[in-house]
Structures are given as structure tokens and as C-alpha cells.
Predict the structure.
Amino acid sequence: LPVFYDVEDEHDSVVGNISSLDRQLLTDIIKTFCETMKENGYYAGYYSTVSFAEKEFFAEQLQQYPFWVARWNESVSPPVPHYLWQYSAKGSVPGVNGDCDINLCFADFYSYIKEHSYNNLNK
């Protein structure tokens, strides 16, 4: 899979509150992350909830990067096409105690990453 940047609002005394950033600045930060990862040989994308993506950054400017969306309400559409969908945080996995996130992937990332020699797959 690509390396994903988790873009959510987590208030932290060290990190702060990213929703206080200007929308364009946060969009540019996400672009910079993805491009820096690419320059260093890794395929990258970003992860966020639909509501955060709609209010806090310009997802339509990030369509060249894979979007992994957290959307637990199927009636809510993401602001741009997505490649992965986290549809539940209440799943179960044999051998794991407690709730697990459950996701679907709609892309063949392995083939793309291998073909473009990302993520050290051809080394």
C-alpha cells in the first residue's frame, strides 16, 4: 500500500489543532508530504474523514494522490473519488481483542507501486 498521511483533527499540547490552519495551507502541507515521499521513492496518499476533508482542506486539489476515506455513513459522499474506504470502526478480526477498523480497497496498489519501483519493491 502507499504510505498514508493521517489528516484529522487531534488537539495535542505539542502538535496543536490542525483545524486552526488555513485551508490552503493544510492542502499544501498534504501535497508537500505526498511529493516528499515520492521524491524519496515512496508512493503516498492521505487519509481523512469526509467531514474534515470538506471543511478543513481542498480535497479537489489533491486528486492526483490516493484518498483513503473514513466514512461510516454510506449516505455521505466523499468530496473526491477515493481508493480506500474505512466503513466501520466496530469490526472484529479473529485473534484481536476489541473493535477493529474495517476497510475496502478499490485499487491494485501493489501492481502500480511495483511497476513504478516505489516503496523499495524492486530493490
Remarks:
- The chain has a mean pLDDT of 88.
- The beta strands are 3-6, 44-49, 67-70, 84-91, 100-105.
- The chain is about 25% helix and 25% strand.
